[in-house]
Structures are given as C-alpha cells and as structure tokens.
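Narrative progress, year one. The postdoctoral researcher (J.K.) led the effort to move from monomer predictions toward full complexes, under supervision of the PI. The following entry was the first complex the group processed end to end, covering 1308 residues in total.
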Amino acid sequence: MKNVNTLFSYDKYYRYIRIVASVTTGVSLIVIWGWILKIKLLTSFLPDLPTMKFNTALCFFLVAVGLLFKTSKRLPRYQVYAGIINVTLLILAGITLLEHITGVNYGIDQLFVKDYFSIYSLPGRMSLGTALNFFFLGLGLLFIECKTRLVAQVCQYLFHIITLISVTSFLTYLFGVGIETKLEFITSMAIHTAVLFIALSGTSSLIRIDLGITSVFSKHSIGSMMARKLFLQIGGMVIVLSYLKILADRYQFIGLEFGTTLFGVLFLVLSLSLIWFVASKLNEIERQRQKINHNLSIAQTFLNSTPDPIIIVDQSAKIFLFNERAEEVFAYTEDELNGLDLDIIIDKRSLSKFHKRFKKHLVEKVKKNKKKPLEVKAVKKTGEKFESEVSFSRITLLEGTFILVSLKDITVRKSYEKELKKITKKYSAANEAAVVGVWEYDIVKNYLEWDNVMYILHGLNKEDFNHAYDAWEKVLHPEDKQRATEEVEKALMGEEEFDTSFRIIKPDGEIRHIRAKAVVYRDNEQHPIRMLGTNWDITKEKQAEQALQNSFRQNLIFVEQAPSAIAMFNRNMEYIAASQKWKEDYGLLEMDILGKSHYEIFPEIGDEWKKIHRECLEGAVNVCDEASFEREDGSVQWISWDVRPWYKTEGEIGGIVMHTANITQFKDSVRERLKIENILNKTNEIARIGTWEVDLGKEKISWSKITREIHEVPDDYRPQLEKAIDFYKEGTSKKSIQSAVTNAVRSGKSFDLELEMTTYQGNNIWVRSIGQVEMFEGRAKKLYGIFQDITEIKNYEISLKETNEKLNAILNSSYVSIIGTDKNGLITHFNKGAETFLQYSAEEMIGKESPVIIHLPEEIEKRGKALSKQLNKNIQGFDVFVELPKQGDYESQEWTYVRKDGSTFSVQLVVTPVKDDQGEIEGFLGVAADISELKNAEKEIKSLLSITTEQNDRLKNFAHIVSHNLRSHSGNFEMLLDVFVSTYPEFQKEKAIELLQLASRNLKETIQHLNEVVVINTEIDFKMENINLRNAVKATYNSISSLASEAQVEIINEVQEDALIKGLPAYVESILLNFITNGIKYRSHDRNSFVKLSSYQQNGYTILDVEDNGLGIDLNRHGDKLFGMYKTFHHNKDARGIGLFITKNQMEAIGGKIEVESKVDQGTNFKLYFKN
Amino acid sequence: MKSNNAINLTCIIDDDPVFVFGAKRIMEMAEFCNNFLVFQNGEEALTNLKPIVLSGESVPDVILLDLNMPIMDGWEFLDNFIKLETKRKILIYIVSSSIDPADIIKAKSYKGLNNFIVKPITREVLSEIMRDAVKH
C-alpha cells in the first residue's frame, strides 16, 4: 500500500510562533507606552520588581515583528524585512553588550526615553543577561534557516541557552531567592522579560524542529512521545520540590542536610512513579500501534493479493492509495498514480454513470447485493480501453471518508457473453432450417402415417391426406415417380437401402427436392411389414448444386474463350478447359487435351512446378509477376503467371487454374527504359552533376543527392536559402553568385559560373553552377539549375597554367639554348639562352637560317656518314639532327656549337619532334646545354683516374716486391741460419745466434702481414659471392671449437638462418676467425666467458653483432688507433696488433665497415656491417 | 754418406745462389739426396733436361722449381716440360717465396705438379717430399 501524503510540516508550528510573537508585541507595546507616559507599573509588571527597560521593550517589539514577518510566507520580501529587523536588533543588543563589557556609555541606553525609575547606577541600560539574550536571539533568528546544518544547529542551541538563562531568572523570581553575585546579570532581568524570553526562545526553536533539543520533542517516535510527557511532569515536580526545599530551608523545618536527602528521596520516588505511569501509558500506545501495524500489513497483503486493481480515493475522487495490481493494469507508475484524478482512468462515455454511483456511495453505505454491479470502460495510460466491473465501498477513517474502488477486468467474460449470444442465435436458426419429417408405412395395412413436419414439407393439410401409398405417389414429380416407386420396391425386396432423393410437387405447384431415407422392418419370414423413414427438404442444396454446375460450365466457357493463356485443371491435374491462347502458346492446337494430364502432355515439367501445383491444390496462390526462362534457342523469355485453386463449393477445391502471360516484349521495353535512366543517373554521378532548385515564392531551396554530396552535408542537413550562399568563398565567388542570383531574379537572366566554395566538411572545391529562371507573369518564380564539382578540372587548369608559366620561364631562360625549327629546318624559335650562347639575335635567325650554321661542318659530315651507314640511306645537312627523332622520340647527342664570332663550345643537344594533334610532325625543338665545363670536369676525372691507376700499379709492384723479393731474402736468411746451426751445433747456444733466429722469424712474419694487407688493397677485381653468414659462422666455429672449449668460452651462434651477405669467402672466413679468436683471446678470467654472434638487417646492411663479456677496450684511450697496424691493447703475448687492422681492410674491401662499443672489464661489442 | 732412399738425383732450378746453396746443404744434412742438378733459369734447365729425360738416363727424381727467374720463368718451363714424354714419373715441386694466392691457384691447375712449397725450405718439408717419393 502506498502512502501518498506526508503529514509532517513545519507550518503547523508557525501558529504557535505567531501567537507568542503577537503576545510579545502587546507586552512590549504596553511597556513602551508605560515609559512614554511614565507609568512605572506598566514597565515592571509587579510593583517593586525591576522594570523592563525601554530598549528591552523595543527589542522585544523588534523580535516579535521580525518573527511575524519570518513566519509569514505570504510575500517573499517579508523574509527580507525579518532579516533587516534582526540586524537592527543585533546592533542594539550588541552595543549594549559592548557597554557592559567595556564599561563605557555609548549613550544608547537613554537614546529614546529617559529612565525615570532606575535605582541602578546605569539608567536605562538593559541588563547584561537581557542584552546577551537579545544578541543570541538576533543571531539565532538570522541564521536559523541557514543551509549549513552546523550553523543552524548552533543557532538552535543559542535559543536553548536563552531558554536556560531566562528559566533560571524566572525561577529565582518564583522562588524568591537571591542569586549569587557572579550571576547577578541574570537577576536584573525583569520577570516579564524572563517570561517573554522563555516563550520566544522556546517558540523560535520550533522554526527548525529537526534540530537541537526540539528535535527530541517534536518527533512521532515513542522516544519523543516519552520526552514530551515526562519532561513537563518531571519539570513541574522538580520546581515544586525545589520550592518546598527552599521553604523548608528558609523556615528551618528540618536540617539542611536531611532536607537535601529528603529532597533526593522524594525526587527519586516521584520520578519513578511518574516514569512508571508514563511508561505503562506508552506501552499501551505501543501495543495499539503494533496492532494497527499488524492489521495494516494484513490489509496490505490482502490488497496486493487481490487480482483486481483496487484504488482508494478521497471524497474529491483523488487517488489516495492503490495496490500494485492497479499500477500493473493501468500501466501508470506509482508516482503518476499518486493524487491522480480517478476520472482519468474511466472512459468518458462511462463517466456520468460512474459519477452517479460514486456520489451515492459517498453519501451512504450501500448494501452490496442491492445494486447490479456497474460496468464501465476503463482506460489505461496507453489509451487502451477495457471492460471493467466496478464496485465501491465506503471507508471512514480519521482523515475522513474514502471510497474503495475495485475495477475488475471483465473483457474475457464480455467476449464470452457475446460469443454465447451469437451461438444461441445460430442455434435457433439452425433448428428452424433443419426440418425433418418422419413417416411410417404399414405395408400390411397400406397405411402411411406422417408427422406434422411431413405435412408442412408437402404443403398438405392432414385432412387432405388419405394415408394410402398412392397418396404419396401422387405428390411425386412425374419425372421421378417411376424411379422413386421402384426404389421403394427394391427396398422392400431387400435389394437396396432406401436412400434417395426425388422431387415433389406441392399443391401450389412448387417443386421441392426431398431427400428420403428409410428402414424396412420384416416379420419372421422376412416379409416386409413396416417401413420407417425420414424426409427432409433439400431444395436449396439442389439449387445451389445446379447453380454451381451452371457457373462451372460458364467458367469453362469463359476459360476456353479467354483471350489470354488460361487453363483449368481438376485435382488430378487433368485438363478441364484451356483457352485458345493457351493452346497456341504451348503448341497444343492439334491435340485433344481435355481429360489428359498436364504432366502427361509436358513430361519435362520439373519437380519445382509440381510442388507449386500441389500447394495450390491445397489452397495456396502462386503469383509471379516476372520470371525469366531460357529457351532452347538461347533467347530469354519473360513469363508472368498466376496459379490458384478453384473451388467447387466453399472450402472444397476442385482443381487449379493457371494463367500465364508472355511479357518478354513488355519486359524488354521496361528494361530499356530503366537502362537509360540508369545510364543517366550513372552519368550524373560520374560527372558529379547535381541539380538544385529554389522556389522563390516559398523561399525554399532543394538539392539533389549529388548536389548534397558535393556540399558534403550530412544526411539530415536541410539547405536554407541564406545559408546556401555562405558555402561560397568570401570575395569574388560569393559576390559573383550573389549578383548572378539577384540578376536572375530581377531580369530572368540565366547564369553559368565557376565558383570556389568550402564544403560542409571544410574542403575547398571548385564548382560550376548553372542557373535558369522560370518566369511567371513577368516575375521570377523558380530558379533551378545544375551543379557540378569541377575541382579536378579547375586544378588541372591551374596546374596547366603554372606549367605553362614554368615552361615559358624555361624557354626564356638564358641557361639553355632552345631553337625551334619547322619540318625543313628553318628556325622558328630562338630563345634568350640561344642568343646568349651563340651571339646571334633572334631576328637574325628566325625565319632565315637553319641550325646548320651554328655547327661545325665536319661534325655534321661525320655524323651524316655514321647515320647513313646505320640507316642505310644518304643523310646529310639538317637531316643529321632530325632523322632519328623523326623515328623515335628524341635524340641526345654531343655537338660543338659555333658562335657568331667563330669560337666554339661543347653542348649536349636534345632534339625532339614537335607534333600536332594528329601526331604529325610539325617541326623540331633543339635544346642545348653548355657542357664545356662538364667536358673539362670529365677531362680532369680522366687524368685523376690515370694517376690513380698508375699509383695502383705501383702499389701492385710494391706488393710484388714485398711478396716475392723481400720474402726470398728473408727465406734465405732463415734457411742459412738453419744450415749454419746444423753445421755448427756448438753455436746453438750462442745468444747472438738465438737472437738472429728470432729476428729472422719476426722479419718473416712482418713480411707476411705486410703482404696480406697489400694483397687486400690491390685486389680489386675479385668476385663477390653470396654467403650465408650463419653457415660461415658455423664453419669458423668448427675450426676453432677445440680452442674455444680449451679456453672455456661459449660461442653462441644466433645469426639468422637466412642472413645472406656479399663477400669473398676467404675474407669473411678470416674476419670471422679474427673476431671469434679475439673474443677468446681477450676473455676475462673472472667470469664464464662467451662470444655471442647475432645478426639483423638495417639500411641495406646485414649487421653481425659480435658480443663478448671479456676484458673490453678502453675506447677513450685507444678508440682512434683501434684498427691501426701493430696496435695492441692488452698484455697478451699472442697479441700481434695486426688482426683488427687486416680485418678492417678486409671488411672495407668487401664494402663493409666495423663499429665498436666496449667497456673495460665488461666486454666488447663489434658491429660488422656486411653488404647484403 | 750414401742414403738408401728413393731419391738419387734432385734438380734445383733457381736463379738464387743463396737458396741453391742452402737447399743443397739442408738436403745433404737431412740425407735427402746427395746428387744435384742445378740450373740458373728455366731455359737452361729445359735445354739440359730435355736430352736427359728423352734418353731416360740419370733422370732426376725430384725437381724443385722456382717461379721468378730471368729468361724463362718457372711457369714457362713447366708449360714446356710437361709436354715432354717422361719414362719415369718426376716429382715436381714449385718452391717459391710467393704467397700470392693467384700463383697458388695457378699451380693447382697443373696436373703434373706435386706441391707448392713456400720458401724457405725446411727439413720437415724435405721429409714430406721423401714420403711422396717413396710412394711412387
């Protein structure tokens, strides 16, 4: 059950606040009045008590008026007034407070009236307590409704402090006791001041009942309830007890200590009894509440389990409560239903009777069974309506009278009712129609007994019937008489069942068809004795049958005469009828097809068609507007067909009708048209031609698809007249389209513009816009035209222009000589460059001379001879330049040009034929560049080359000397030493001889190294081979594996399988060997050593990475001489300082290079760049 | 000192008298051979060896041939000498100070050549030659 209204509201308490404020206003006005008229009693309330100071009264007045404004929600500006009043109050109280604190008189005390009655030294000044209270009150009222809860909370407690101070003050008056001097500021508060403060602070705390102590009291919970009840009682009790104790003390009835003890005991006893009393009361309340809750939950369960929507409304028919079913049925959400007018869910037509009944229930309790339930149409949120039965019941609650409305969906019931009615109607009709007469024929007595229906069937009166067999025979139709009587006889003979039909003639001449059935009864000897039968009228059926047969026949005729191809088949697909056209179309003219199976005539009919036929025999209709069939001769025939069942009677399919049409011709023309349209569309699309139209009357612009595409607008973009023009580029384009449109509208002038625009996507394009105007009665009505993206064309145009300009620049450049001639060699063009080069002016040459004059005659002759030989025909003069270009595209040849002054220079001359549109040669263009400098450079290079060659030869020579002569000598030297030592063994131990042998060996080694280097440097002609680096590394490793394992160095080959490099196998082997043995040689003995080889590709190189973790090289110290000859960097006895030098040379010889990274005592990484 | 090995006569063709002297001495000391035929160049060698080879008498067992010689170098000598029909197989060694790979490759192309010995000649090389000679 959903609770709709919250009963919780602050406003309820505002009433109290306003009452207190009003009273305060009155009191303060009285005091003010007292001061003005100098009547002391009015200011002190009781004689001899402290007066309420004028300022105090004024402050009370301000507080009260402020509160009145604050609690009035009538106008928003009242809140502002309240604020201003509070601020004034704060200032007044604040100044007084300051006076108290500083002891200085600011003159505010007697600002308004003079204090005539004061017995104190500070006339007119309100007491410290009062000032403090006002200050707190002002502060609290100003900020109590602050949104920050903490601030509001503080304000609330300020109110509570005021209450506390004033209650204390009040009690001192009440008990007539003095106050400790330290708290004297409280006593000087007048009694009515104290009372007013209590009232004001108490009620002010009601502004925010959710805060402070007030919150404890204001809630509905049991705790608050207890607080409310107990507080007043205990409070009262404490006051009374305290007073009694004071009296006891004052008059010394009992001792002070005993009195205090007694006070304590009394307090305990009384509070206990009060608590007991209140608690038992509260328990009772709680029990009732639980009971109510229990009942409520039962009610809720009941309501929600009710299958029907139940809605409880108040007297004004506003929805107050409802069950879940109501939400479901009416499809409203909970929130929507809350407070909704009940009328919304009732159909308008049902409203008046609904209201009538609703009002009746509102006034009195109506007994349930007294009235027929009300049926109305209910409306769902979706607008859907349904029949529903409404029942009302009145509930009286505390809040008033409510009506429980239950709306039962009776749609289904209603539909059943309708159905029932229909059936009943049908049933009675059927009864009337099926009239069956019963007869009995006693054969022995020849007595025919008829029931009433028989008489009706025959249209006879009972009196007119003589009950003899003849009487029946008489009514029979003459044509049926014989057959019918025979059938009766047969039945009697036992030959056949009597089940037949025949016609009778009624007395009024009407012929009716009668169906008759009978059973024959026989005696023991099988003689028929009795016949019992029934007759009924089947005239209608017979007529229908007749009609059907007639129509069938008509249909057959229709089919046969139809101008289109139609055939009719029975259920066995045998021809019943076929039109002439059908026979023509399918070549059946010569055949007698009726009664023959379709499949028999066309054995080639496929299963697909058989299936269609079968389906149509089941009632399906198969229509095809067009289908293509390829004939045996390859032509395509378009056929449309319609196959559907025909019905013998309703529901009984007699067979199918097929209708086919040859639509090939029609189809062809349609296709032709579509093709043209398609081509046009395609053309438009390819040409990017769009259309546009501006309706000037409606100020509407429309764009075709292509136009939209050219604008690159999104699908949902709607072009607007003003915006369309914004697509054009500012400046010329925009101006010209604007003026063209204006002109067109004004004078009907069409336009054709090429414009630059920025598309929706921000692309810059060129478009061509052609516009036409449709004029109507001298005014432009419509503007329409085509729109084409010509960016590409425009770009070509622009680039063509640029190219032309560039070409012109070239033609006129003075760095190249360009000479144009006609076919016969007459100069037609002589550019600036030619003028500069050749010293002839264009005027001297054009139309006058042939390029022959700027050439050396002997060169022309020489070239002529060469060409004559090559082409096997006589070529001379101008033709030597153009004979080859005539055949090919152009010819580039070195020539010597002769200046006007006879000096010469070398040129590279390119001769190109100039062709016209048809590709016919019109003339030639000779472009010549001065290559004198090039020639000189060439010469220089050649001389350099010869020097280099010479040097290389010398180097080779040197190599030979090293290789042979030096070695022979050193060899001899060694050999002789050997001989000497062998001959004179006693010298073996001679130091000098030993050293000589060492020197000999060193010499040999040095020569060998030198030789190796020289060989590398001189051998340029070797053949580079493709080498698989991985395999090369493997081979090298195999050759040094024992060395590696001895030195415990792990060789890791991670070179790519397919790393192919170009090199000399011997070199590559040497290089690899060098690096790997280096890695082994310069290993570190402090760790497990390895040499790792890996490879990768970079910038056309295959890079072999040889990484070790050996001793490393100090590159800062040795970097520059790492690859120098005889450089060693370790104190290794094997180090010869030649390995890296040779390796580097070898690498360079095969087009590679080496890079190195190394850190001392960490390892070295060589990167070998091999060409791949 | 008569050796009982297969080599009786060694022919040295070299223009370097120092080499010839040293080689002879080493061969003698190593008991390689005691009889030598020495020629200063290819032409001299060819002229003198031709009748010897043709006659088949006192044919040297081994020829040590230098490449670089005046008048006729080792290659030319080889070209001509190979054409001669020898009755006995003569072991021919090129003994050169050239370590030019081109020379070594060229030497390999001669069928009749046994080896390419880089100078200086040592006893180890001699004993190898002796092993070759014994085989034949």
